[in-house]
Design goal:
Structural class of chain A: alpha+beta
Order of helices and strands of chain B: HHHHHHHHHHHHHHHHHHH
Number of domains of chain A: 4
Largest interface: A-B, 44 and 43 residues
CATH superfamily of the largest domain in chain A: Histidine kinase-like ATPase, C-terminal domain
Structural class of chain B: mainly alpha
Distance between the termini of chain A: 118 Å
Strand content of chain A: 15-25%
Number of strands of chain B: 0
Number of strands of chain A: 22
Distance between the termini of chain B: 56 Å
Radius of gyration of chain A: 37 Å
Largest sheet of chain A: 9 strands, mixed
CATH class of the largest domain in chain A: Alpha Beta
Shape of chain B: globular
Strand order of the largest sheet of chain A: 1-6-5-4-7-3-2-8-9
Oligomer: heterodimer
CATH topology of the largest domain in chain A: Heat Shock Protein 90
Strand content of chain B: under 5%
Chain lengths: 611, 352
C-alpha cells in the first residue's frame, strides 16, 4: 500500500449536496447526466490530442437491493494526480477559470467537480479509478459525503480512462433499476457520437445504436417523416404529427421543432430539449426560441451557447439573441413554404394554433400575408375563415373592439352588411395589416357611426313634424355628451342604437375615474379631458320605424319625452355593458319612480279599477 | 358571449402584454364597476396600470391609477399599499409628458408622492430621484443637477428604482446636456452588463450613439446601434428610443433610417405619450429632410390611417409635416414649462 494522505474540502459538503439537490438540480436523476457529461468531456479531450481515437462509455449495474452498485467507465483522457486535486477537490473550479467561470466559454461542458458531487445524492461513497493519457501512475480517489476524501497511487497500471463506482444509498434503489437507467441514458445520451452501453443482469445493450443523420443535418428530415416523428415522440413523449427542421446560418445550432398536436395556452411555459455537443444539457430550456413559438417543442443541438449553472437555461447574451432570432425565422420561413406548397397542412396547423399564429402575424407582415386566408373570424355571416368571407365578394367591414361589434352587429346584420369582429385578441391589428397590404380586398374599418350611413333619413316633412321633439331630446342628453339622431332603420324591433367612438369610450372611463379619485388627480384628469373634442360625443339613434319611438316622437308626448329619452339612453348604456356614472344612475332612478307614478295615475284615470 | 370578471381576468393573464390584454382588462374593470365590486375594480386596474405604462398607453395608466388612489384613500385598510405606491412612481415619471397638465400640478404631484412615501416609511432617495427626473423632463437642467446630487447621497430602500434604471437616467442627463464624455463614463457599468433590467440597456444605448460618434468611432457607434436596435425593434414602449436611433442614422445611414421610420410610424399614430411622439416626429423630419436634400424621389411606405388624412406625399412635404408636428409639440411644452428648452432642441435638430 502506498502512502495515503487526507485532505479536507473547503466547504461543508453535506450542506453543499443539500444545495445541489434542492436548488441547483431539479432531481437526483441528473447524476447520470453529470457522469455522462464528465465522460463526454474526457473523450472530447482525448480526441483532440489523438484524432484517431474512438471513445466509448459503458455503464454496469451489479448486485441487487441495497447492495447494488453502478460503474460508469469511459476511455477518455483520464486524470493525473494534479488533475484530481484541481478538478475533484476544488468546487467551483473548472479547466478555465475566469471571474464568472460559468459564463466563460470552455470547450468542455462539464465542470467536473460539481458534476461528480451530484452523485452524493444517490450514493454515500464515490470511488474514482483513473489513468491519465499523459502517463503517470493510475490513481484512486475516494470521497465521502462528510467532506473527506483520500487519494492514493495504485500499484497496477489501468487502461487509459476513468471509472466511477457508486454504491446505492438507502431509498435510492429506483435510480439503480436497470430499466430506469436505460431510459435515462437514452434520454441524456441518445445522440452521443460514441457508443454508450449498459450491462445489467448478464445482458449488454448499446443505448444509442442508431444515430439519426437527419438530426445533425435537419434538411434531410423532410424525407424521413415517419422516423423523425417517432424519434420525437419517444424523446419528448407527445404523439407528434408535424415538424419543422431548424438550422442557423452558421450551422452551429439546429434541430427539429415538433408542432404540438394540441392547442396550448399563450403563456404556457415551453420547455425544449437542448443538446450541447450532442449531450443533453437541458430538457427545460425556455429561452432558446422566440416567445411566440410556444406551439412547438424542440430538440435542438448547439455548440455555441452557454448553459447556466442549473443547465436549464442559457445565458441571455447577444449570441443567444441572434440564435433565437434565426430559429424563429426558420420556423416562420417553413410555415410560409408550407403555405405556398401544402395549404391544407398549414390550415391544420393554424386551426390548432390560431393564437400563436396571430401573435406572429401581428409582428410580421410577410407572414401575415401568407396565412391570412386561413384565419377565422366571427362575423355577421357566422364564424368563417377570411378566405371564405372574401369569396362572398362583398365589401368586408371590421370593428376595432368587441364592444363596437356588439353595438352594431344586430343592425349591421339587418342591413346585410358583412362585418367582422375585430375585437378579439390581435384581430384588429391583423385586419388593419391585411387591408394595408391588399388594397384590392375592400376591407375597411367600420366605425359605429358608419352603420348609420345606411339608415334612411327622414323626409323634409317628417323632419318638420318632429323638429321640436328632436331638439328637446337632443337638449336632454347634452349633459351626457350624447347627441341624438332620428332615422329609420332595420330591424324595426330595435328602438334605439347607441354608438360610442373609441374617444368617447376613453372619455367615459376618464370621467368615471375622476368621480372617485383624489382631488389632485381628479383635477389633473380634468386637464387631460379638456383635450377630447367633438369626437368624444356619443350618438343615440332613434328608429322611427319602431312603433314605440314613433308614438314617443309624435306630438302629445312632450311631457314624457325627456324622461323617456333618458331612460332609453341609460338602458342603451347598460345593454352595452357601460358602467353608469353617478349622474346617469340618478337619472335612471328618478325615471323609474316617475314611470311608476305615471302608470299608477293612468290607471287611476281609468276610474281606479284594476283590470 | 357572456364573460364574468374571473373569466376575463384569466383570459388577460394568459395574454402577452399589449393592446389586446389591455382591452380585456378594461372590459374586466367595466364589469366590476357595473357590478359595483370595488375590490375587483382595484385588481383589474392594478393590471391595467402595469400593462399600459410599459406599452405606450400612459393615459390609460393614469386614469386607472387615479381611480385606484381615490379608492385607497377612502379605505386604506382594504388594499395593500406597496404596489400602489410603486405604481405612483410610474405615474409621476409620466405626468410631465402631458403638456395639458400645468406646472403647478406636476409640482404638487411630486410633492404628494414624497409625502406619501414618507408616511409609508421610505426615505427621501426616491422622492429626490423623481424630482431629478421631472426637472429633466421640464428642461430644468440646473434643478435636475441639484436633485441628482441629493438623491445619490440618500440610501437605497425598497421603494428605490433598480440601480440600472437610476444609472440610465444619469446617462440620459449627461447625454442631453451634451456632456458626452461624462455620459459614456456613466454608461460603463451598463455597457459592461453589470447593470441591466427590463429597459436597460435598451434605452441607454440610444443615448450613447452620438457621444460615441463624436468621441470614439463610427464603427463603435454602429455596433451600439445594432445591439440597441435589436432590443427595441417593433416595441411600442420604445418609440422614443427608436427615434433616437433614427437621429444617429440620419447622420450615418439614411436608407436604414427610413426603414426604421416605415417600420414604426404606424405605432406612433395611436401612441398615447406625446413626448415619445415628439421625439419620433422630430427625428423623422430630420431623416426625411436629409433624404429630400439628396434629391431622392423615394416614396416611403405609409400606413393606411396616415394616408387618409394626408394627401400630398412628396418627401419635402412629409419632412415638413413631421417638423410641424414636432415644433408645435415643443412649443406646447415650452409654454407650459416657462422656458425655451424644447424649441431650442427641436430647431437645432432640424438644422443639423
Amino acid at each position: 500500500m502506498s502512502e495515503q494522505q487526507e485532505y479536507r474540502f473547503q466547504v461543508n459538503l453535506s450542506g453543499m449536496i443539500n444545495i445541489l439537490s434542492n436548488h441547483l438540480y431539479s432531481s437526483p436523476k441528473v447524476f447520470l447526466r453529470e457522469l455522462l457529461q464528465n465522460a463526454t468531456d474526457a473523450i472530447t479531450a482525448r480526441s483532440s490530442v489523438d484524432p484517431s481515437y474512438k471513445g466509448k462509455v459503458s455503464v454496469e449495474i451489479a448486485g441487487s437491493g441495497e447492495q447494488v452498485t453502478m460503474t460508469v467507465e469511459d476511455t477518455g483522457i483520464g486524470l493525473t494526480e494534479e488533475d484530481i486535486h484541481q478538478f475533484l477537490a476544488m468546487i467551483g473550479h473548472s479547466s478555465k477559470v475566469g471571474k464568472d467561470f460559468l459564463a466563460t466559454e470552455t470547450s468542455f461542458i462539464g465542470r467536473f467537480g460539481i458534476g461528480l458531487l451530484s452523485c452524493f445524492m444517490v450514493s454515500d461513497e464515490i470511488v474514482v479509478l483513473t489513468q491519465s493519457a499523459k502517463g503517470g501512475p493510475s490513481m484512486e480517489w475516494r470521497g465521502k459525503p462528510d467532506g473527506t476524501y483520500t487519494i492514493r497511487k495504485l500499484d497496477t497500471q489501468l487502461a487509459i480512462g476513468t471509472k466511477v463506482y457508486l454504491r446505492c444509498k438507502a431509498d435510492c434503489a429506483d435510480y439503480f433499476e436497470p430499466a430506469a437507467v436505460e431510459e435515462l441514458l437514452f434520454y441524456y445520451g441518445a445522440l452521443l457520437p460514441y457508443p454508450v452501453t449498459l450491462v445489467a443482469g448478464g445482458q449488454q445493450k448499446t443505448i444509442n445504436a442508431t444515430q439519426p443523420v437527419w438530426f445533425a443535418e435537419p434538411e434531410l428530415a423532410r424525407g424521413k417523416r415517419r422516423e423523425v416523428l417517432d424519434f420525437g415522440t419517444r424523446l419528448l413523449a407527445e404523439p407528434f404529427e408535424d415538424f419543422i427542421p431548424l438550422r442557423t446560418a452558421n450551422g452551429r445550432t439546429g434541430g427539429i421543432a415538433y408542432i404540438l398536436p394540441h392547442s396550448v395556452n399563450l403563456n404556457t411555459r415551453r420547455s425544449h430539449k437542448v443538446y450541447l455537443k450532442q449531450m443533453l444539457v437541458s430538457d427545460k430550456a425556455e429561452n432558446i426560441l422566440p416567445e411566440w413559438a410556444f406551439f412547438v417543442k424542440c430538440l435542438i443541438w448547439t455548440d455555441e451557447l452557454q448553459p447556466t449553472a442549473s443547465r436549464e437555461h442559457f445565458y441571455e447574451d447577444d449570441r443567444l439573441q441572434s440564435v433565437r432570432d434565426e430559429l424563429g425565422e426558420a420556423i416562420r420561413d417553413e410555415l410560409v413554404r408550407i403555405g405556398n406548397h401544402e395549404p391544407e397542412r398549414l390550415q391544420r396547423i393554424i386551426s390548432l394554433h390560431a393564437l400563436p399564429m396571430k401573435a406572429l402575424a401581428a409582428e410580421d407582415a410577410a407572414f401575415l400575408n401568407t396565412i391570412y386566408k386561413w384565419l377565422s373570424f366571427e362575423s355577421t355571416y357566422g364564424e368563417q375563415t377570411l378566405g371564405e368571407l372574401i369569396d362572398e365578394k362583398k365589401k368586408i367591414y371590421y370593428t376595432a373592439t368587441v364592444d363596437e361589434y356588439r353595438q352594431i352587429t344586430h343592425v349591421a346584420a339587418a342591413q346585410s352588411l358583412l362585418v367582422l369582429n375585430g375585437g378579439y385578441i390581435y384581430n384588429h391589428q391583423l385586419l388593419e395589416g391585411i387591408a394595408y397590404m391588399n388594397p384590392e380586398l375592400e376591407l375597411e374599418r367600420l366605425m359605429p357611426e358608419d352603420v348609420s350611413l345606411s339608415f334612411t333619413d327622414l323626409t323634409m316633412e317628417e323632419k318638420n313634424d318632429h323638429y321640436d321633439a328632436i331638439r328637446l331630446a337632443d337638449i336632454t342628453l347634452q349633459r351626457f355628451r350624447c347627441q341624438i339622431q332620428l332615422k329609420r332603420f332595420k330591424p324595426a324591433e330595435l328602438p334605439a342604437l347607441y354608438t360610442l367612438s373609441k374617444e368617447s369610450s376613453a372619455l367615459r372611463s376618464l370621467e368615471k375615474a375622476k368621480e372617485s379619485s383624489t382631488d389632485l388627480l381628479a383635477s389633473v384628469l380634468g386637464n387631460l379631458g379638456g383635450s377630447f373634442g367633438e369626437s368624444a360625443y356619443s350618438t343615440l339613434y332613434f328608429n322611427l320605424d319602431n312603433p314605440l319611438i314613433d308614438r314617443l316622437f309624435s306630438s302629445g308626448s312632450k311631457d314624457m319625452l325627456p324622461a323617456a329619452v333618458e331612460m332609453l339612453y341609460t338602458n342603451a348604456l347598460m345593454m352595452g355593458h357601460y358602467p353608469l356614472s353617478r349622474q346617469e344612475l340618478a337619472v335612471l332612478n328618478q325615471g323609474i319612480v316617475r314611470f311608476i307614478d305615471w302608470g299608477l295615475s293612468a290607471n287611476a284615470g281609468n276610474g281606479g279599477a284594476s283590470k | 358571449m357572456n364573460y364574468d370578471f374571473e373569466t376575463l381576468m384569466d383570459e388577460a393573464y394568459d395574454l402577452p402584454d399589449g393592446l389586446a390584454k389591455l382591452e380585456v382588462l378594461e372590459a374586466a374593470a367595466r364589469y366590476a364597476d357595473a357590478e359595483g365590486d370595488i375590490e375587483q375594480g382595484f385588481e383589474a386596474r392594478k393590471e391595467i396600470v402595469h400593462t399600459a405604462i410599459f406599452h405606450g398607453y400612459p393615459l390609460k395608466a393614469l386614469i386607472a391609477f387615479s381611480w385606484q388612489l381615490g379608492q385607497y384613500d377612502r379605505n386604506p385598510e382594504q388594499f395593500g399599499s406597496f404596489d400602489l405606491m410603486w405604481s405612483y412612481k410610474w405615474i409621476v415619471g409620466q405626468v410631465a409628458h402631458f403638456p395639458e397638465i400645468p406646472l403647478h400640478k406636476i409640482e404638487e404631484l411630486v410633492d404628494d408622492l414624497g409625502k406619501r412615501y414618507k408616511e409609508h416609511g421610505y426615505n427621501e432617495r426616491t422622492y429626490f430621484y423623481y424630482r431629478f427626473r421631472v426637472a429633466m423632463d421640464l428642461g430644468k437642467m440646473a434643478e435636475a443637477q441639484t436633485y441628482l446630487e441629493l438623491f445619490q447621497k440618500a440610501e437605497r430602500d425598497y421603494m428605490s428604482d433598480c440601480d440600472a434604471c437610476e444609472q440610465n437616467q444619469i446617462v440620459q442627463f449627461y447625454s442631453q446636456l451634451g456632456e458626452h464624455e461624462k455620459a459614456l463614463e456613466a454608461a460603463q457599468p451598463i455597457l459592461s452588463g453589470a447593470m441591466s433590467c427590463a429597459e436597460v440597456p435598451h434605452i441607454t444605448l440610444s443615448y450613447l450613439l452620438l457621444p460615441m460618434l463624436e468621441l470614439q468611432s463610427e464603427q463603435d457607434a454602429r455596433k451600439t446601434h445594432n445591439r440597441g436596435y435589436r432590443l427595441i425593434k417593433g416595441k411600442r414602449d420604445f418609440i422614443e428610443t427608436v427615434g433616437r436611433h433614427m437621429s444617429f442614422l440620419a447622420r450615418t445611414d439614411v436608407k436604414k433610417g427610413i426603414e426604421l421610420f416605415e417600420h414604426h410610424l404606424a405605432m406612433t399614430l395611436d401612441h398615447e405619450d406625446p413626448f415619445h411622439k415628439l421625439v419620433f416626429h422630430l427625428y423623422s423630419a430630420q431623416l426625411l429632410q436629409k433624404l429630400a436634400a439628396n434629391g431622392s424621389k423615394y416614396r416611403p411606405r405609409l400606413p393606411m390611417s396616415f394616408l387618409v388624412s394626408n394627401e400630398e406625399m412628396s418627401l419635402a412635404h412629409l419632412a415638413d409635416h413631421f417638423a410641424q408636428l414636432a415644433l408645435s409639440a415643443a412649443q406646447q411644452y415650452d409654454t407650459r414649462n416657462g422656458n425655451s428648452y424644447y424649441m431650442e432642441w427641436a430647431e437645432e435638430a432640424l438644422r443639423a
